[in-house]
Amino acid sequence: MPELFFQPLDNWELARQGAKKMVSAPVAIDIFAGKTYVEKAIVADLLMERLTVLPLGCKAVPESIAVVLNKIDWQIQEKLLSDLNLHWQQTNDSCFDLTFSLSPGARCYGLGERYSGLNLRGRVHTLFTSDDSRHIESIDMMYKAIPFLIIDDPLAPPGSRFRGLFLDSTARQKWSLDPDGDNTARIEVLTRLPWQIYMFAGQTLPELLAAFTLLTGRSQLPPRWSLGHQQSRWSYPDEATIRSLAVEFRERRIPCDTIVLDIDYMDEYRVFTNSKERFPDLKQLVADLAELNFKVVTIVDPAVKKDPGYSVYKEGIAGKYFCETADGQIFIGKVWPGASTLPDFANEATRAWWGEKHRFYTDMGIAGIWNDMNEPALFDNQTPLAIDARALPAAEPFFHKQDKEQVGHLELRNAYGSLMCRATHEGLKKLRPHERPFVLTRSCYAGIQRYAAVWLGDNMSWWEHLAGSVPMLLNMGLSGVPFAGVDIGGFGGDTTAELLLRWYQVGIFYPFFRNHAALDTRAQEPWAFGPEVEANIRHLIETRYKLLPYIEQLFCEHRETGAPLMRPLSWLFADDPVACEIDDQFLLGNNILVAPILKRGKSSRFVYLPVGLWFPYEGGEPLSGGKIHHVSWPLGTVPAFVREGSILPLYDDPVQSTVECDKAAVTFMCFGDHCQGIYYEDDGISNNYLQGQYNQWQLSYSAGKLESRAIHKGMSVNHKRRYGFVSVNGAGVCTLSLD
Ligand code: GLC
After folding, report:
1. What atom in ligand 1 is closest to the CA of residue 234?
2. 457 lines ligand 1 (CB under 6 A)
């Protein structure tokens, strides 16, 4: 056993309590008596090390919900080679403490959803899935728990600056990232189960994400419609409201693909039902909306109403699909339907049953499913573990069955949302095998990108939350999750014309693009503030639709390399110390730099442009990089720059829905004298691309000519479409050939 792990550390309790209480505390003794081993593997040319800890009495590591890379050639080694100076010990029967060093000046990113700037260093981050809607500075536990940390050490040699740590345990974890300023980080994990920590050797940020997403998987391509504008509200009360909403969008010529039905479409919040009074013929409604080129997404919460007359409840009882308490009773908690049970998604049989239940929706033509409240949220017990607990309680609130083993909820909680999405995703795949599933989730664990898109829950119509969305979504992307967004306009509270507009200015660049608002808040549909605001929002949504070919190519890139769509400037400009400090600007792919207005009453801001020449997105003289510019972004303008040398594939004319994309002309916008780009095309809905049925071209522009070379030929060329290019030196038509 490597000696390293038993090196005594005598200040666990002191460090934990000292700063707060200024008193000394007893020294914690390492009581570990189980087994441990260290392995290493080379994945994609990079060194990955793994420490496995099997507490006394545990024989094997349970299957991980996060890790999909099974074919790794792990080799046992004597001790960790990583220079992070990792130490750990078992402090009591259900608490492990780890420490590692953070060099002065090192920045920390990742950890999923954190209400924080991009750099997470300097505070404690508790990963324990919770439904806490007060997203203010002191919020700690949020909906998601992704224990992947990136450490950016600017003093490390170039090319090996970014290191990664992934602690694969679905129990509660507290990551203290040097809050005491002693260059020490601590992790506390409350578990009795085995756990593993993966350490990724220093590399570039793109290489690190490639390795992490090889380990935990990547998103498949989303259906094209899900990248369009989605309109939601808690809740559009009835069918008539939905119908007039759809007509309103089309008459006003504001592009939109999806109308979302929140909880009130159900019969007293019973999942897999529809209200007979308010949505009497959901199938007909969906069919009529399809005529207008709309898709419908419905919310599905995990809670199943306790009602002996309700078939889903009865089936769940009969199949033993619900979570049970220690004495074998069905666990009952309070959620929207009142007294409710919770399906045990850790149990494979429950997942199969739940997945199949979605036939109710697919039979009606519902296009996608929104999984909410899956932390799981319980109104009478939102955080089932005291925040200062240093051990698991003797009694668990309820249990799960995983591989026939009973697992306490507190040890599995962080994966509950992901397991629910897995059930939904697999169900949709079975029910509609030829179509790409769309699932949206609020709660999740590492690896969720394989099953669902995410949004960041109940924000407010506050400028702080508009500003916060940028670093929060950047950290989601750096945690392996590319398809993410926040409620545009803000969920809680009343939005204003200015805030809504500024939110759309940045929202058009979120990978997931949805306007959603809470009950009793003022209307925030694009036309809610009169014609002038409406015209500006229309222009912004049209801009999003024009950008779709670029966005689809970025999803392909994610599949190939693990790269997120929204990237911090350090993704591309890691050698530029100014770029690395910026978290109110971001890159969408490598070619667009977004620098939005995030404060009330402002119409201009300072923008830092890294080295190179940058073209304002909507035209005008390029600005040179390596310096700060003061830039005006009037309401309704697109606050972005394009990097010299890029070719952006854009739809020419705005479509009203992605149904029209097949015929839309594409223009390759060339920014500079010598440009490069990639253009991707597939049918946007089926899974045929997985069998190679797509085309991809490498585009080059030089001396007034655009050339294309097919890098993948899998379909016939779309003859309904016209292709052209526009450059500083003029415009032209072009043909894309597969020769
Ligand atoms: C939760 C969700 C929110 C939804 C509401 C009603 O608060 O986060 O998006 O509208 O529940 O279903």
Report:
1. 10
2. yes
